[in-house]
Amino acid sequence: MPVGFRILPRTRAVAPALIERFRKLPVANVSDSMSRLFAAGPRLRPMHKGGVMAGPAFTVRTRPGDNLMVHKAIDMAEAGDVVVVDAGGDLTNAIIGELMLAQMVRRKLGGIVINGAIRDLGALSQQPFPVYAAGVTHRGPYKDGPGEINVPISLDGMVIEPGDMILGDEDGFVSIPFADAEVVCKATEAKHAAEGKQMAEIEAGTVDRAWVDATLKRLGCEGV
């Protein structure tokens, strides 16, 4: 099987029950619970009307500007899967547009992330199917390959493996490694509950802000 032009099976995926627990959590809280070290870069933004993206990763690595393997991934992916495409970050040619979106909606996929460009923004931005991309261009893609399906990929240093947990909202998206998903979910649930309590204290005017001056003094700030 030639490296760089191959299709592999996905052998694992986060459980549906865990996906639903993540769906209720903000991406920012998940990011904090992972020590703020995991991100796919600020260019990858939501292009859809709004709503949460949550599901197991179905990964694609493709030549920049080419979407042959993305078409194949859409045909292979299961309902709820999030197709994550490493297209090299190139914005010269769009990887998907309105027609491919319609196919993903018909197959009930969970969303798509593209480290590359989209087109037909007017149509994509008016519907709820989750689409994250690095940019927009009217120039269409090629369909010649090469590419790989269900291999580890990296988006701006964030490694994504097939079956990892993908979660996205208005702040962007994050990938949670398969082996760490349960631990991260529990930590995030606790953080989310703590922030709910803190918000109630802010609204009631009872929040303790003494930590600000204490931190400044500890760091040697003058005038505190």
From TrEMBL:
Q: What cofactors does the UniProt entry give for this protein?
A: a divalent metal cation
Query: What InterPro entries is this protein classified in?
Result: RraA/RraA-like
Q: Which residues form a coiled coil?
A: none
Tell me the Pfam families matching this sequence: RraA-like
Which residues does UniProt assign to the signal peptide? none
Identify the PANTHER family for this entry. 4-HYDROXY-4-METHYL-2-OXOGLUTARATE ALDOLASE 3-RELATED
NCBIfam families documented for this protein: PRK06201.1
Name used for this protein in its record: Putative 4-hydroxy-4-methyl-2-oxoglutarate aldolase
Naturally occurring in which organism (per UniProt): Falsiroseomonas tokyonensis
